[in-house]
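REQUEST FORM: STRUCTURE PREDICTION
Request ID: SP-0412
Submitted by: Lab K.M.
Chain count: 1
Length (residues): 282
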Amino acid sequence: MRQPQMDDRQFDRIAALAYRESGIRLVREKKLMVQSRLRHRLRELNLDAFAAYADHVISENGAQERRFMISALTTNVSHFFREAQHFDILSDRLLPRFRACIATGQRIRIWSAGCSNGQEPYSIAMHLLAQDPSLVDGDFRILGTDIDPQVIAHARRGSYSAQHLRGIPPEILDKFTIGTDHDDGSRTMTDELKRIVSFHELNLFSQWPMQFPFDAIFCRNVVIYFDQATQERLWPRFNAALTPEGLFFLGHSERILEPADDGFQSVGPTAYCKPAHAHSTS
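STATUS: Completed
RESULT:
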C-alpha cells in the first residue's frame, strides 16, 4: 500500500498550526521529516491522506490531536549531566544562598522548562544533594515541564536504561538510584529524589500556573526550535519568573542576543543572572 504523501499546501497548514500552538518553526526543507513523523498519526486516526489530517487537527475537534502532533514533531533527546559547566555555575553561585534558605525555612525552587524524559531535573537534584544532603530537610523542590505528555509520563516513572544512565558518575549512581527487577542494568530514581522532583505538562506559550519565583531556570535546547521573534517573547517572561540573582541557563547553541535589554547579565557560557537590583520586565 502506498504511503500517504504531504504536499506543500498541507505542510504549510500544519507548519502554521505548529507555530501558533507551540512556537516551533518548521521550514519547507523539513517537509519529509514532518511527513515521516506524522504518518503514524494518520494510521492511528484511520486517515488515508494528509489533507484529511490537516483538516482534522486544525478543527475544533482536533485539540487532543494537536498535542499528539506537537509530540511527534519535537525531538526528545537528553542526557544526564549534559553541559556539566552549568551545574557547577549553579552550585558555585547559589548553594550558599540555598543553605541560608534551609536555615531560615525559606523555599528553594528550580524549574527545568522543556525537561524531556526527566534527565535534566534529576541531574540538578543529584548534583545539589551530593554537595549538601541537608537540602532534603528544607522546602526544596524542582519542577520539570514539557509540552509532550508522553515524555512527562516517562519522567514521572523515573526509570532509565543502562545506556541512558552512562552520564551519571558511579558514586552518584549508587547513591540516588536503585536497581530494577529487570536484568538489563536499568535503574530507577530513589523515592527521596522523586519527592523533590515533580513533572507537569506545560506549553511555554500558554499561561504559566506556577505561583512562586524560581531561584534558577533551565531552558536548554528548547528555544533552538523557535525563531528570534518568538524567543524574544519568552525572555521577559523567564526574567519575571526569577528571583533577584536567579540564574537562567540555555543550551550550548542558544543565546540571548542583548542580555541587558531583557534584564540579564552573562555569568558564563549560555548562563545568565537576573541582577539583584533588577525590576520585573513584564
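NOTES: The two ends are 53 Å apart (CA to CA).
Reviewed by: T.R.
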